[in-house]
Amino acid sequence: MASIKVLKTLGVGKGIKMDIKVDEAEPEDSINRCVMDTTSTGEEALYIPPHWHKDHAEHLSVLEGRVEITLNGDKFILKACDPAVLVPRRARHSVKGFVGERLVFRERADPAGMYKAMFFNDVLSTGNFGSYWHILRAFYDSQTYLALPFYFQFFDEAFITIFGGVAHLFAPPKPETL
Questions:
Q1: For residues 2 and 174, what is the distance between their CA atoms, to the nearest angstrom?
Q2: Do residues 109 and 34 make contact, with C-beta atoms less than 8 angstroms apart?
Q3: pLDDT at 1 over 50
Q4: CA–CA gap between residue 90 and residue 84 (Å, rounded)
Q5: Model confidence band, residue 23 (pLDDT cutoffs 50, 70, 90)
Q6: How buried is residue 149: exposed, middle or buried, by Cβ count under 10 Å (0-12/13-18/19+)?
Q7: What is the distance between the alpha carbons of residues 104 and 61, in angstroms, rounded to a whole number?
Q8: pLDDT tens figures, 84-138
Q9: Which residues contact 110 (CB under 8 A, 6 or more apart)?
Q10: Can you tell me the distance from the alpha carbon of 7 to that of 125, in angstroms, rounded to the nearest whole number?
């Protein structure tokens, strides 16, 4: 009996989807229990803009293809079979795939839990990235911050706190379940 289950598949972009997976053989507190695998056909490049997380780290790996990762200003290429990259909490990071190249990209949150899956379920609940207000509300609710060009996390936090709070008036509510 297989212990890995796809809980939900979300549309990310043209030719890009994300599978939220759970490995029930892993303990609840394992970062390998809940993973998000994003697959891109290469028709459109995967792009995750610069951002950072207040309360969690991430382990990023490539199962197939390659991505360009920018971590605190340093750019490098991460390929399949390379060791996972640890993105510490509060580290500014972005991810970019390549047009014309197939990619399977994995994210694991640390500490473990379903909160990252719930964030993606929220942001991508419309079948693609939500509206401006929807994204601000989702970032506010998940303590994720857009990395603004000022390079001071205080401004990033203030921006999301103010506009993400206001977004609760305009954006759809956060889904409670997958």
A1: 31
A2: yes
A3: no
A4: 18
A5: very high
A6: exposed
A7: 9
A8: 999 999 999 999 999 999 999 999 999 999 999 999 999 998 877 778 999 999 9
A9: 31, 56, 57, 58, 59, 86
A10: 14
Closest-CA residue to 40 (of 73, 75, 70, 64): 64
The number of CA neighbours under 13 Å toward the Cβ of 32 is 6
The Cα–Cα gap between 44 and 18 comes to: 14
pLDDT tens digits, one per residue of 38-85: 999 999 999 999 999 999 999 999 999 999 999 999 999 999 999 999
Does residue 36 contact residue 146 with C-beta atoms inside 8 Å?
no
For residues 155-163, give the mean pLDDT.
Answer: 96
pTM of the entire structure? 0.93
Cβ pair 110, 57 in contact under 8 A: yes
Q: CA Rg, the chain, in Å?
A: 16
Question: Is there a cis peptide before residue 111, judged by omega within 30 degrees of 0?
Answer: yes
Residues 6+ apart with CB under 8 A from 149: none
Closest Cα to residue 122, out of 105, 139, 109, 108?
139
145 has pLDDT over 80: yes
Are 170 and 133 a contacting pair, CB within 8 Å?
yes
